[in-house]
Each structure stands twice: as structure tokens, then as C-alpha cells.
Design goal:
heterodimer, A: 290 residues, alpha+beta, Uridine Diphospho-n-acetylenolpyruvylglucosamine Reductase, domain 3, Enolase-like, domain 1, 2 domains, 5-stranded antiparallel β-sheet, 4-stranded mixed β-sheet, 12 helices, B: 167 residues, Ubiquitin-like (UB roll), DNA polymerase, domain 1, 5 strands, disordered C terminus, binds flavin-adenine dinucleotide, binds FE2/S2 (inorganic) cluster
Chain lengths: 290, 167
């Protein structure tokens, strides 16, 4: 087994194409090293992205933020600019694992791993994140909600690479929150997490409500009909109770060591209500561990 | 691991130019221990407990899931590199003064994150900052209060230094 370390995206794509099925990409390696050490995957060859400095870039544009695939979770969390532009993402990233993992883990690896028990993908979903997927002679932008298809599964085809994610700047009046509920140790992955986004018009009525649940289903869970029904409603307990009830009723969560399916179903309703309440009444955008 | 996979990786370990050998994806902890650096200890092997913490270019990382190739051309520090001219660092001495360990298995890991925290900050640290800097470190003997005290005392004195600090 060997690791190839190309220096350009073009070389990376060529190596992936030449390597075929048994070649895998490695970025920070926090997920992959763990799986290899436990014999869960045994690729014949790895293509490391660590020398692709072109992918280790944060670009703040007037209408969006672009994060290169190789940008580490630690640098997202530490960036003062991102804390201002995307405060909830920045804070939610700071709740991932511990600082040693965040130092190595990359945003590209985070979305490509497609682990259901992850925090950032739910926040990214409510923010309307898109993923840039590149192959030899092909490139496409895919909404994260379509990029993630099932447990540990994405739409990535062999030979394809995620080069960056793009996050539209939230509306200046939008309020965002992420609540991470953990059921075991302080630095555990989420049992259930809820990302909420609430935007109001000048009369204080809801214009754009979005909610995504992390950790409970294969991919971030949304009930678009329930959040769209809030349009024009007052951002109060009545509205949030309805959304919470709809989420709790519709979700079919996984049962695992972090909580049974029934428990997660109950927690989902409670957290959706609290996240919406926090987003609509709190004074700060951010992420909170419960 | 297949013998033909063996490669050499040059890096600066505790201030000295060093060649480590192993396969690309040999966990860094294996190569560092083979090099005689026994302060780097494996407990969980999955990035959770912190006993294998080393500083890679000054930042704490888990050596149990760090591939060896990631050390190539980089600077690594382990607890062996904390002392200076045969003298324990201020943080090490404060760990002794605060009795911040019982069995001491977790100690090198806590020292590395504690040192990185001190290196990256100024002035006295409060509990919140210390807990944040020491997150992801487990002490089975439950010496957390004394460990926090050691870092707090050291931050208040702020004369902490160590050999070849930062990179
Ligand atoms: C101890 C521990 C605790 C954790 N806790 C949390 C938590 O609380 N919350 C949370 O959300 N996450 C958590 N994680 C998950 C962590 O965030 C991921 O492991 C990390 O984001 C993966 O990024 P990486 O760069 O290390 O990926 P790698 O391990 O390098 O790769 C992961 C997968 O993605 C593929 N890949 C990587 N980059 C690309 C790319 N650019 N294009 C295409 N494919 C790619 C790889 O082939 C591989 O299949 C935890 C992980 C550990 C080890
Ligand atoms: S042994 Fe590496 S973090 Fe536990
Ligand atoms: S002193 Fe024994 S594990 Fe910490």
C-alpha cells in the first residue's frame, strides 16, 4: 500500500483515474486512518490531498463563502472573518470532536465521509451549501442535500474529487442556531443535533424558516412542508410547536449506542422547538452543546 | 506490513533532525515509539483520549491516527522535548508541585496540550480557557482539578518555557 501525494488537482484526478477502484482519497485521515486501523477498509493505494495548497483556501465573496476542500475544521473555527460571516457554522465546527481532530480534519473530508453522526452537514444544509465535484473533464455543483445520499454514501463516482464547498451568505436579518445534544462524553458525536435558520420580514413575520436534524438519520433530515408552512406566521411558540410536532412525527431515527430510535424521535421534537426558539429570540447566532 | 512498503521520513523531532521509518500509513505513534519516544502512549487508538498527543508544527494532534507521511518535513514535539538542559519545564515542575497525576499514564498528553495552550495565549488563564485547551484528554485517575490547577498556576506565573518552543 502506498500514498501518492500530487501537487495539483489535475495530477490528482489523473492518479485517481489510473488507480481505479482500489484507490481512495485521503485528506486529514481522521476517519480513514481509524477505519484502516480497524480493518474496515483496505485500499491498495491512497491519493493524499495534503500538498494541494490550491484547495486550502477560504474565499469570502460578497454573496458567498467558498471553503476549499482541504481547509481544516480548526482553521474554520479560528477564523475571525468566518465567525462574523457564518457565526453558527464557525461555532458548530468548534463543537466537533476535540481540537486534535479538528486540527487534521478537513471540510472536504467531513462532507465526503457522509457519517450520519456529524454536526457540520446539518448546519451546512440549512445554509444552502453546495459541493463542487470535479472529475477529468467534468465539474458540477451539487446541493449538499443531494450530494449526501445514504449512510456513508455520497453521489461521488470513482475518480471524482470534492474541491470546495460554497455557502451563500445568510440574509442580514436571518438568525441561525445549532443545538448539539450529546448523550455520552463531552466530546462525543451528536445523539441528535438541530440546525435552525429563521428569517423575518419588516413586520416580524416568518419569511424563510429552515430546520435540519443531525445525527439521527442517514443524512440531515428536513421536513420542508412543515417549515414552508411557517411563511407569514408569527415566530412564536404556536408556530414552533407545529414544526416540532411535524419533525418528531415524520422522522424515523436510527437506534444506536447514543440513543434508541424512540428516544431520538422524542428528543428531535424537543430540540427543534428549542432551536427555533433560540434562533428567533436569542441575542446571538451560535452553536450550543446540551 | 509488507517490508517493501518501508520508507524513510525526515522531520525535526524535539529539535533534532530525525529520520523515521515505516510505511506511509503506519500510525505516527508506532514510529515515534520505535524511535525511543515512550512518552507517546496509546490507549484508545481512535483519537478520543489524548494519551498519544504530540505537537505537529506546534499544534496538538493524536499520533494514533496520524499517518507517518504527515510528519515528512515537519516539526514534531513530544514530552521528551519539554525539558531544557536537563531541567524539567515550568509546566512539568508545576505538575509535580500541584500533584497533577497519580499513575501518570495520561500526563505526557496533558503536558503537550497544556504547553500548546500556554504558548498560544498570554497572561493568566481562567477555568473555561483551560478546559477548552485540555479538551479531549481523559485521566482515568481523575486528577482533573489538580491538572487544571497546574496549568492555571503556570499561566499566572507566565515564565513557562520549553526547549525549542514553537516550531
Ligand atoms: C475521535 C473523533 C471524534 C469525532 N467527533 C465528531 C463530532 O463530534 N462531530 C462531527 O461532525 N464529526 C466528528 N468526527 C468526524 C470528523 O469530523 C471526520 O473524521 C473528519 O471531518 C473527516 O475529515 P478528514 O479530512 O480527516 O477525512 P479523511 O479521513 O481523510 O477522509 C474521509 C473520507 O472522505 C473522503 N474524502 C476526503 N476528502 C475528500 C475530497 N476532497 N473529495 C472526495 N473525497 C474525499 C475519503 O476518501 C474518505 O472516504 C469525529 C472523528 C473522530 C476521529
Ligand atoms: S490513543 Fe490516541 S487519542 Fe487515544
Ligand atoms: S494520572 Fe492516571 S490516568 Fe491520569
Amino acid at each position: 500500500m502506498q500514498v501518492l501525494r500530487p501537487q495539483t488537482t489535475a495530477d490528482t484526478l489523473r492518479l485517481l483515474a489510473d488507480g481505479g477502484e482500489d484507490t481512495k482519497i485521503i485528506a486529514g485521515g481522521t476517519a480513514l486512518m481509524l477505519m484502516m486501523r480497524n480493518g474496515l477498509v483496505m485500499p491498495e493505494q491512497l491519493v493524499s490531498l495534503d500538498r494541494l495548497s490550491e484547495l486550502d483556501r477560504v474565499t469570502v465573496e460578497p454573496d458567498a463563502v467558498r471553503l476549499g476542500a482541504l481547509v481544516s475544521l480548526r482553521s474554520i473555527e479560528r477564523s475571525a472573518e468566518l465567525a462574523t460571516v457564518l457565526p453558527t457554522l464557525s461555532a458548530a465546527v468548534g463543537l466537533v470532536a476535540n481540537h486534535r481532530i479538528r486540527q487534521r480534519a478537513t471540510i472536504g473530508g467531513c462532507v465526503s465521509e457522509a457519517d450520519y453522526a456529524s454536526d457540520p452537514p446539518a448546519v451546512l444544509t440549512t445554509l444552502g451549501c453546495e459541493v463542487h465535484v470535479v472529475g477529468i473533464g467534468t465539474q458540477r455543483w451539487i446541493p449538499l442535500s443531494e450530494f449526501l445520499v445514504d449512510y456513508y454514501q455520497t453521489v461521488l463516482q470513482p475518480g471524482e474529487l470534492v474541491t470546495e464547498v460554497r455557502i451563500p451568505r445568510p440574509s442580514p436579518t436571518a438568525r441561525t442556531t445549532y443545538l448539539k445534544y450529546i448523550s455520552r462524553s463531552a466530546e462525543d458525536r451528536p445523539c441528535v443535533g438541530v440546525a435552525a435558520h429563521v428569517d423575518l420580514d419588516s413586520s416580524g413575520r416568518c419569511t424563510d424558516v429552515r430546520v435540519a436534524v443531525a445525527g439521527a438519520t442517514a443524512t440531515p433530515f428536513t421536513v420542508v412542508a412543515a417549515t414552508e408552512a411557517c411563511r407569514g406566521a408569527k415566530p412564536d411558540k404556536t408556530a414552533w410547536d407545529e414544526v416540532a410536532a411535524a419533525y418528531s412525527a415524520a422522522i424515523s431515527p436510527i437506534g444506536d449506542a447514543r440513543g434508541s430510535a424512540a428516544y431520538r424521535k422524542h428528543v428531535t421534537g424537543e430540540l427543534v422547538r428549542r432551536a427555533l426558539q433560540t434562533a428567533s429570540t436569542g441575542t446571538e447566532n451560535g452553536a450550543f452543546r446540551l | 506490513m509488507d517490508r517493501t512498503d518501508e520508507k524513510s521520513f525526515s522531520c525535526v523531532v524535539n529539535g533534532e533532525y530525525t529520520v523515521l521509518t515505516g510505511a506511509d500509513t503506519t500510525p505516527a505513534i508506532v514510529a515515534l515509539r520505535a524511535h525511543g519516544l515512550f512518552s507517546v502512549r496509546e490507549t484508545c487508538g481512535i483519537g478520543v483520549c489524548g494519551t498519544c498527543t504530540v505537537l505537529l508544527d506546534g499544534e496538538p494532534v493524536s499520533a494514533c491516527i496520524l499517518p507517518l507521511y504527515a510528519l515528512d518535513g515537519r516539526t514534531v514535539q513530544t514530552a521528551e522535548g519539554l525539558e531544557e538542559g536537563g531541567e524539567l519545564s515550568d509546566l512539568q515542575q508545576q505538575f509535580i508541585a500541584s500533584q497533577a497525576f497519580q499513575c501518570s499514564f495520561c500526563t505526557p498528553g496533558f503536558l503537550m496540550s497544556g504547553q500548546a495552550l500556554l504558548d498560544g495565549t498570554d497572561g493568566p488563564l481562567d477555568d473555561e480557557a483551560i478546559e477548552d485547551g485540555l479538551q479531549g484528554h481523559l485521566c482515568r485517575c481523575g486528577c482533573y482539578a489538580a491538572i487544571k490547577e497546574a496549568v492555571r498556576e503556570c499561566s499566572a506565573a507566565r515564565t513557562c518555557s520549553r526547549a525549542g518552543a514553537r516550531g
